[in-house]
Amino acid sequence: MKNKYIASFEQAQIAGKNIPEFRAGDTLRLAVTITEGEKSRVQNYEGICISIRGEGTGKTITVRKIGANGVGIERVFPIYSDSLEKIEVLRRGRVRRAKLFYLRDLAGKAARIKEIRRK
Amino acid sequence: MEYIVEKIGMSRTIGATSKVVTLLKVKEAKVCEVNDGVALVAYSEGKSMNKPVEGQQKKYNLSAEFNKFATLEVSNTEAGDLDMAPLANAQTVKSSFNTKGRGFTGVMKRWNFAGGPGAHGHRFHRTSGSIGNREWPGKVQKGRKMSGQYGNEQVTVKNEVMSFDAENGVLVVVGSIPGANGALGRVKVVK
Questions:
Q1: B183 and chain A: CB distance < 8 Å anywhere?
Q2: pTM of this prediction?
């Protein structure tokens, strides 16, 4: 548990954020703001959330996708960061653990996750 | 202006370039007497109490929880509650804390000596090695870096102020500050 002063300092920053509910195993689409020089644009990053860790402003998710040539890509995002414009849940996955690091050792069909319909 | 503060802990901001911040709790204090901007100030830390402290409390009409005394630069002109107003528009502060004590420490940790290889018959692992020259100068040079007590010494750092919550007395500064969470130190408003 965090100190009450730290918790309220972080809560004040998080308050305005609208983050959907999701778990490990869900497929997410993240709108990432990229600033190059003076221009900034939004790029979508889509993949499976394999880990949620931390609390407060330091809460991060690890999102894994298979990139070009079948190379696995994992990116860690602080979910309350201002550089994340939007988080969208595309698909709910049925998994039995909170951290899906075993997906790193699987490829192709074996690395699929079944979809479930949650209420 | 100086204040007694307690280090609460660290956090971060959520901006696109996130900043590391340290939260400090400014201790409530009573000014006992002021002399040219320098004041005797009472604050509370724990419950330790003895007769000399009791006598001082009686002298300055303090309640029982103010059991520690310090000399601070203050903006008050007379005795009473410590004036927190200068913190509200402070931009930079200098914080003095005791660093975490590490006890008797070897040269690799204390002075970043390289050390030697770990295995393959080597006998020079983490020791300091040679410390002197030859017959001349025939003594160890002053200031030679050796093993010894490391940490638990006062270190002062300069930090930018992010915000000050006057209601709770929480001062938020950018960056880190020496010492453990819960440690007491001093903060001086520079700008």
A1: no
A2: 0.84
Sequence-ordered list of residues with C-beta below 8 angstroms from that of A18, at least 6 positions apart, any chain = none
Do the Cβ atoms of A25 and A14 come closer than 8 Å?
A: no
- In tens, the pLDDT along B130-158 reads 998 888 889 999 999 999 999 999 999 99
In this complex, is the C-beta atom of B167 within 8 Å of any C-beta atom belonging to chain A? no
CB A31 within 8 A of CB A25: no
ipTM over 0.90: no
Candidates A4, A6, A60, A80: best to mutate against B (most CBs of B within 10 A) is: A6
Q: Which residues of A touch B172 (CB under 8 A)?
A: 9
CA triplet B27, B84, B15: central angle to 5 degrees? 85
Give per-residue burial for B151-181: e unless 16+ CB within 10 Å, then b.
Answer: beeeeeeebebbebbeeebbbbbeeebbbee
Q: How far is B93 from B186, CA to CA, in rounded Å?
A: 10
β-sheet bridge partners, residue B5? B26, B185
